[in-house]
Design brief:
- With 168 residues, the protein is mainly α.
- The chain has one domain (4-158): Up-down Bundle (Ferritin), CATH 1.20.1260.
- The protein contains 5 helices and no strands.
- It has helices at 4-33, 37-63, 83-110, 114-144, 148-158.
- Helix 1 (4-33) runs antiparallel to helix 3 (83-110), helix 2 packs parallel to helix 5 (148-158) and helix 3 runs antiparallel to helix 4.
- The protein starts with a helix and ends in a 10-residue tail after the last helix.
Length: 168
């Protein structure tokens, strides 16, 4: 059985993962509405990944005989001034999520909950990948600047991203 303190923290993370999904779906819808379909695709895939993260945690709580308590999802932004501003928001958000996962890991360690700590190892690795991927896009956006041809090429590249179910 999972300790109540860990269960509560995991439930909060489930909510954060679903909020992340909602944020990325909003980004996808925004960029699709202005004809940046590749960017929209990248965020739509990100949305699906965040849903999978939330479900993985939800399933883990159940596996440990805990109780999942879903909370309302807070509202998210619906517009961005540029592709770059959306990816700046994304890197900031992913860094926040990394901090949250690290705090969960520390709590599991403090409580000698080795099963939860082990489960979170996959999330820690996932966050490293998330931040690296977004930083790569931001680096490309810095290189491109306001060049329309460069933004067009990046949009085409981001359109190729496909969803792969994360092994969490």
């Amino acid at each position: 059985m999972i300790k109540k303190e860990i269960e509560d923290a995991l439930n909060a993370q489930v909510n954060a993962e679903f909020w992340s999904a909602y944020l990325y779906l909003s980004m996808s819808c925004h960029f699709e509405s202005i004809g940046r379909n590749g960017v929209a695709n990248w965020f739509r895939v990100q949305y699906k990944e965040e849903l999978a993260h939330g479900e993985a945690l939800l399933n883990y709580i159940h596996a440990r005989d805990g109780r999942v308590v879903l909370q309302p999802i807070q509202g998210v932004p619906t517009e961005w001034t540029s592709v770059k501003s959306a990816f700046i928001d994304t890197i900031e958000h992913e860094r926040k999520v990394t901090s949250m996962i690290n705090s969960l890991y520390a709590l599991a360690e403090e409580n000698r909950d080795y099963a939860t700590r082990q489960k979170l190892n996959g999330f820690i690795a996932e966050q490293v990948e998330e931040e690296e991927n977004v930083q790569h896009i931001l680096d490309n956006l810095d290189l491109i600047g306001e060049d329309g041809a460069g933004l067009y090429q990046l949009d085409l590249e981001l359109a190729k991203r496909t969803y792969v179910d994360p092994a969490l």
